[in-house]
Amino acid sequence: MNIFLNDPWWLILIKVVALFVVLLVWTIFNVWYERRLVGKMQHRLGPIMNGPFGLGQALADGMKALIKEDFRPKNADKWLFNLAPVLTAVAAFTCWTVIPFGGQVTIFGVETRLQLTDLPVAAVFILASASIGIYGIVLAGWAGNSTYSFLGSIRSTAQMISYEISMGLSMVAVFLMAGSMSTSQIVESQRIPLQLVVPFTDIVLPLGLQTWYFLLLIPSFIIYAIAMVGETNRAPFDLPECESELVSGYLTEYSGFRYALYFLAEYINMATVSAVCTTLFLGGYLPFWPLNNIEFFNNPWFGPIFFMLKVQFLISVFVWLRGTLPRLRYDQFMGLGWKALIEISLIWIIVVALVANTQYRNATLGLGLALLIVLWWLFGGKHPVAETPEQRPVVEEVYDPFAGGYPVPPMPGQMLPELAGVVRGPAQDQTPAEVTAEGKEA
């Protein structure tokens, strides 16, 4: 850590400005990139015709967000309404202060790393900073004084808290393998050549690969990949913003520059979780195989190139999911987080803890595959069989949905009066009026 403490103030300022510019330019590029990629996937042109390669549309939308009328609802809380988007945007930028773009280099005669700073608990710092963004979403829903905004913020809060637990547990396995929570040290620990040790012998077989943790910790990688989509409220987990139910969720009352801050934070968060995934599981700034075996490509100045290529690949996966998968139901989504991901993570952490500090640490690759096979055997491939008309339960009760003064949906075994004519079973030959009369007598 001493190398970061020796950076002069002017070098820190250069790093801050460079990081800020890179994130802004990268966000503009990702907006354009997502539109182009979704258009290709869905065989449609979309708003990509203005300017060369559709760049004019992205620039026009950015300018429109900046100069559009920025209004606030009459009954909204003024201070919280203005503070909410700032909190979310600041949290999105803060996470990048400990993300390593490259290794140790010399800049104007000063030995430093291509990273703003690092901490002994940098990975935990990322989780803490990302959690601050939740406050921005909660305050947006509360301060807007709107039902749709409030429901969207409540959904987002439950969603982000639930999947942050899964995300944090998936990181624990990486900490055990790397022996550190420092992001730069986690990346360097993946530089070690991957070797296969034959059990109960002294035979060691080099594989020519680096120990990227997505190979050794397959369950953790899969859990993190699912959690990072849920954490960023992206499709198919975009339930806090789904237009079919909540107009635009917690963003409903925002426009202009304040809306642009949320829009910016969403894309930066998408890049942030992808950068963390790259750092923890994909070797960070380390070169790909087989380039890692060529000394020329191990130059630390190539690190940012490899790092950004990996992050952009993960962003492409985000876009792919948005363009192909339908939105989940909320109960399915929460059940996945609480009933599957957390339990699997806890079991996997115990397995990793038993072998992480032994000579058979690379055996986690086989153990992880074995765990996935067992889970698939227990829970996969079992689909409910559709009921035949004879197997469906007989509806015997017809009820009045407005009996208590409020509309109440039917419970299992109940039917609305206007639908009673399609009742199966003994009552199928009765007229709707006869069934309704019997239901009232009951």
UniProtKB/TrEMBL annotation:
Keywords: Cell membrane, Membrane, NAD, Quinone, Translocase, Transmembrane, Transmembrane helix, Ubiquinone
Family to which this protein belongs: Belongs to the complex I subunit 1 family.
Organism: Tessaracoccus lubricantis
InterPro entries listed in its UniProt record: NADH_UbQ_OxRdtase_su1/FPO, NADH_UbQ_OxRdtase_su1_CS
Membrane topology: Multi-pass membrane protein
Protein name: NADH-quinone oxidoreductase subunit H
Segments passing through the bilayer: 12-33, 79-99, 119-144, 165-187, 207-227, 267-289, 301-321, 333-356, 362-379
Quaternary structure, from the entry: NDH-1 is composed of 14 different subunits. Subunits NuoA, H, J, K, L, M, N constitute the membrane sector of the complex.
Substrates-to-products reaction catalysed: a quinone + NADH + 5 H(+)(in) = a quinol + NAD(+) + 4 H(+)(out)
Location in the cell: Cell membrane; Membrane
Pfam families assigned to the protein according to its UniProt record, in alphabetical order: NADHdh (PF00146)
Gene encoding the protein: nuoH
E.C. numbers: 7.1.1.-
